[in-house]
Specification:
Length: about 290
Amino acid sequence: MPVDSPSLLRWYAAQARDLPWRHDGVTGWQILMSEVMLQQTPVARVAPIWEEWVQRWPVPSAMAASSQAEVLRAWGTLGYPRRALRLHECAGVLAAEHGDRVPEDVDILLTLPGVGAYTARAVACFAYGQRVPVVDTNVRRVVARAIHGRAEPGNPSTTRDLADVEAILPASRPQAATFSAALMELGATVCTARTPDCARCPLPDCAWVLAGRPAHDGPARKVQKFAGTDRQVRGRLMAVLRESTTPVERPVLDSVWPADPGQRDRALHSLLVDGLVEQTDDGRFALAGEGSVS
């Protein structure tokens, strides 16, 4: 069953959130920054930091000229800071090999550091208006409900998911790009995971609603916890290093998680392995690029 494209597009024109990366004049590089930041991080946290980055690093070469530590500090508490390092690496490649511009072609985008299947298609679509399927968690949920009549999309399958969305894209390239944004917006704001607001949905022929909104009959979704995890410990260690202008002694880092020294040591080791933290010749610790590795 096809999605009612005209209804969805009209709804998006009237209801789309005013997000800064949707404004006119936003470049492919700035779209790429937003997409990297938005991976596993809510819009409300991303928007103010993205606007700061656009001013500070309007083109890839500007970021490439900055140190890894500067980028990590500016990343702040967005989480998963390896994304920042990969974006810094990507900026260097764009500046050196692509004329300081983000390419339009999906296959070329996929060769860039830190750019995966979703990000490549999102940049091609949202920055350059390409007619390519863009599939995130929100899109998968809308397709599962509206097309397949299921409450949940089940396990991801890149081939199947891309084919599902490709099949419902409008033929018109400009409409297809807007449709992709609208489908994502619908999943983020109306067709949500826990409390879908079907009364506000612009898709009157949703297969899930027509079937009586049957409950999900597969395995329960895994809820990612944060408190007490290695991710939380890594975040606290990174916070100490971001706030210090000089390398930090080991006892300072030990003090941020005294309850479980083994977990703290494991988290610190993982930061060193990931290249987010360096150890200086005298045994202190600093953000990447701020200490000579021993």
